[in-house]
Amino acid sequence: MKKIYLNIVILFLFGMAQMTLSGDNPSQQGLKNEVIKILDQKYQLLTNISDSVWEYAEIALLEHESAKLLVEHLKKDGFTVEQGIADLPTAFMASYGSGKPIIGILAEYDALPGLSQDNTPFKKVLVEGGSGHGCGHNLFASGSLGAALAIKEVMEKHKLKGTIRLYGCPAEEDVGGKLYMAREGLFDDLDVCIAWHPDYETKVDVKGSQAIDDLEIEFSGKASHAAFDPWKGVSALDAVEMTVFGINQLREHVRPSVRMHYVITHGGKVPNIVPDYGKLWLWVRDSTREGVKIVVERVEKIVQGVALATGTAHKIHYKGSYHEMLVNLTGSRIMHKNLEMIGPIIYTKEELAYAKRIQKESDTKEVGLVCEIKELEEPSKDPEGGSTDVAEVSWIVPTLYLSATCAPYGIPWHSWAVVASSRHAIGHKGLLLAAKVMATTGIDFLLDEEVLTEMKKEFKEKLKGYKYKSGIPPGQKPPLRVKNSS
Ligand SMILES: [Zn+2]
């Protein structure tokens, strides 16, 4: 009896020792498997959160309900949350844990005006004149939340050292919330930052993004009767038109990578009054911030010349300015390995049919969904057209960017077709994949100091001594927007 008893005790102690080894010191892969499992279990919750944000469809700076929902879940899960940061009422920063490393994850949740769309594979307006998630930021929000919650859960369970921080970043489609958050220094203490975006391809994105300057050009003139005494008038509309002409003449003499696009927001009220006020809203983009600066200086000269020629007064309001993305290949390789380990999304026949119907309805080739994982590309010297405020963060801390398939291949972005994909399983599956890739990559950074050091080394080399400088004029606050209740 005694011997049996002794054997049981030995076995029990051995078992305890095993548990301690595998429980408190699990392998890196073991922890990755855990976050993947947690995320599979949270799939329904994350889908529900994403669908709620889709339904709120709140445009830039008005994302109150969306931010509230995310914050509620973070608080419930033990995160400390600061809201209304950087003078942005719908921004927040949620942290769990303490000390280094500090891993940041970005979340966006603003919708686009005029893109209201039902959950159907054909165009069907849900709310006349309403907004919609034409960039899939509802998925972005929930996927990033999922990654933060999963990392936190394993940190707590295994008492891992470090901090996980989720940034609620409003108004990506408008003023660029991260621009203000970056100026405030909110990303300064991070060791790494991870972000993603819905796409129609799955890859770790190292292509980069364009730098951009966002400006408003105003002209003031003098009103008069356009037929009775037009000689007494000074037309601000003339000035706007001449500026547009000047920009279009300039177009031939800029580098091919430059993009200039504008809208005339004010050009007078009625034809029989010489317009005394005119406004042009202009975006200038290029592959580098330096390139943008060269073009903007020439635009400034055009504006000065036009003001002189028309006798108007002019004012240029510099609304915002993004850097180009600073790609970090070391970190991107780590993320790519995790993406490959998790593997591509698998779709059902119904999901593929839904995708093809969207393609048919939007005059896009009916190729369905592209789920295979693209190889890590070489960073492009001249990235394709498009800018993001994530790029601001990339000049402060090594930043990694994932694209996950959430929509049918080739459909026009910022359109009804993306809204229709973002409340469907094809979007939901993309958010889950993104959450898993971000969470497993976060685990790598929590456990592997060497990787962090390597990544920082590349970052420092690429900075070439440059210290991040915000492109918004000092003291400029983000505009406050109030929801129109009518
Ligand atoms: Zn977007």
Description:
This protein is an alpha/beta fold and 486 residues long. Helices cover 42% and strands 17% of the residues. The chain has helices at 2-24, 28-41, 43-56, 64-76, 137-158, 177-183, 236-250, 289-310, 329-342, 349-361, 390-394, 416-421, 425-447, 449-463; strands at 80-83, 92-98, 102-108, 162-169, 192-199, 203-204, 211-220, 259-266, 277-286, 313-322, 399-405. The strands form two sheets. The protein has a seven-stranded mixed β-sheet with strand order 1-2-4-3-5-11-6, with helices on both faces. A four-stranded antiparallel β-sheet has the order 8-9-7-10, covered by helices on one side. The radius of gyration is 26 Å and the shape is globular. 48% of the residues are buried. Bound molecules: zinc ion.
Helical proportion?
Answer: 40-55%
Number of strands: 11
Radius of gyration: 26 Å
The end-to-end distance, rounded to whole angstroms, is 83 Å
Query: What hetero molecules are in the model?
Result: zinc ion
Structural class: alpha/beta
What fraction of the residues are assigned to beta strands by DSSP?
A: 15-25%
Unreliable segments of 5+ consecutive residues: 1-23
Strand order of the largest sheet: 1-2-4-3-5-11-6
Shape summary: globular
